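I have a small job for you when you get a moment. Would you make up a two-line entry for one protein for me to read? No commentary is needed, just the two lines. Write everything out right here, beneath this request.
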Amino acid sequence: MKNGLLALGLVLASLPAYAKDTLMILSPHRKSIQDEYVPAFVEYYKAKFKTDVQVDWLDQGGTSDDVRFVRAKFGSNPKTSGVDIFWGGGTGVFVDLQKENFLAQYKLPKELKAQIPENASGVPLYDKTETWYASACSSFGMFYNKKIMKFDGMPEPKSFRDLAGPDYFGNISLTDPRRSGTANTMNTIILQTEGWEKGWQLLSELAGNTRTFTHSSSDPIKAVVAGDVSMAMAIDFYALAKIGDLGTENLGFALPTGSAVLDPDPIAILKGAPNRKVAERFVDYVLSVEGQKLLLLPKGVPGGPKSASLGRMSVNTEAYKETEGKRIYKLNPFTQKGFVRLDIVKAAKLQRVFNDLAGAMLVDTHDDLKKAWAKIVKSKKPDQAKILEFGKVPVTEDEFFKIAEKWDDEVFRNQTINSWVSFAKVKFKNLQ
């Protein structure tokens, strides 16, 4: 068992040789979250409960990989996965995990529950079954290199639509949505706020301006910081952490006008957690004022992170009161207006087939797509008919919903994906 877990990427985050209590966390969170929260929890645990705790951090490579791991574990043993906590990955993931009966109910202590409202700007912060709780909130926007944009004379964007303009050709980096929950959420925002036809038109044009599709949602951030591209669509905390470290004079982040969305980042105790009591204590810590300050404060500030700024929005109202005037991100989701609410149940239901359609139309055929888009945008007078043709997908929204109902049939799925790729190749070749 031990060797198998190590082979799957188990990281021994904290290993006191004499630890009495243990905890295993499965999470796609970036390493800076692990590096801040695990040592802080170990220290807190020792002070409060007078004993040591060993925390093992397991990550399979990304949200989708972590979900597959949990499903496989429960497939082998329906009573337990052998893991205590699943942390991070967006609300849609936890909606699915709850439906599959993989999550355990946990009622927060009354004092802590009173500090966490039912919603922020209308977005639920915990499920009515009390199987998952938001541990932070995320927003999605545009991260950019101010110096590169100024040098190239590029305007700072105010909406996702702005990124489709010819000024951004070859200057954007995006992530394959089949590999990234963040990329999937941003695509979902565009589709739900723009509608089916206009949404795919915009997604196609953004892909046309994209230099590369990466495998990790952190890679576009690195590309912007390095100056390889000027712009990336990004989740706020990746961008804000870099801005906190490198300065607002170098980097910027903007929420898109008319399509700013809050997405809770949940934490849950898995069904049959082998270390249930320790898992409950970890959830309490993460949601507490002490735990939430790690999200809000810049590194080096008392009560804040020690190694790296995390730059996230808290879900604890008391944490906002205690960090007023000190936070990296001034936005408060409990007072900010104008957020758009996503249909997360619909998004979760359609996520797999949506990602496969995006993969076929935008990623797997990206070389042909870029050639077609280059010819359109570089002409003296872009042909509107060709632009509309460029954004077409092989199915209507109604047809897409019907196809989604049969997506568990792998033969049907593979045949359909192949037909979509063929459609895209022919379309882009005709436009070159």
Q: What stands out?
A: The longest strand covers residues 133-145. The two ends are 55 Å apart (CA to CA).
